[in-house]
Design a protein that fits this description.
By secondary structure, this protein is an alpha/beta fold. It contains six helices and seven strands, in the order E-H-E-H-E-H-E-H-E-H-E-H-E. It is globular, with a radius of gyration of 19 Å.
């Protein structure tokens, strides 16, 4: 991983290869919710420094007890979520929960992120899962693909100039 982190990812088994290509060191099938806390604790017995939740489920009863002292949770999704907050476990670890949404970033933050992304793209270190690319004239077809629940991104590009 470019940032030097040891990444433990939970995913469906069919996504394990994708997660490995993205830099995950250890993968855990999240389907067995009863076993998940023990598997995560076994994977990181010293605790987890950063829990990045982009699922929108916000299972804080699972995440908070697994954090190290000073650990952080980053929440990226779930505008309507109202999770239970295990306050005792949170404050006795000096832990915190932070929200993140890209539209709150400053121009300087976006420029810095763009420079990092451009460097990663230039060195083929940034990968994406693109399911399909469609011309603008096929936007309805692209939308149907999205509604079908495909994995990966759908790209819609402007139609090439006929001249």
């Amino acid at each position: 991983m470019a940032a030097g982190a040891r990444v433990i990812a939970t995913a469906a088994p069919e996504d394990f290869d994708w997660c490995r290509r993205c830099g995950a060191h250890l993968l855990i099938d999240y389907h067995d919710q009863a076993a998940l806390p023990a598997l995560l604790h076994q994977a990181a017995p010293e605790g987890i420094d950063l829990w990045w939740d982009n699922s929108g489920r916000h299972d804080l009863d699972l995440a908070v007890p697994l954090l190290t002292r000073g650990g952080r949770i980053i929440a990226l999704a779930g505008m309507a979520a109202r999770p239970v907050l295990p306050i005792g476990a949170l404050y006795t670890r000096d832990a915190s929960i932070r929200g993140f949404v890209i539209s709150n970033a400053s121009t300087a933050d976006l420029a810095e992120a763009a420079a990092v992304i451009n460097d990663l793209l230039a060195t083929n270190q940034l990968i994406s899962r693109i399911n399909g690319t469609y011309p603008l004239t096929a936007a309805a077809q692209a939308h149907r693909q999205m509604q079908a629940g495909v994995k990966g991104r759908i790209l819609v590009a402007s139609d090439p100039d006929p001249g």
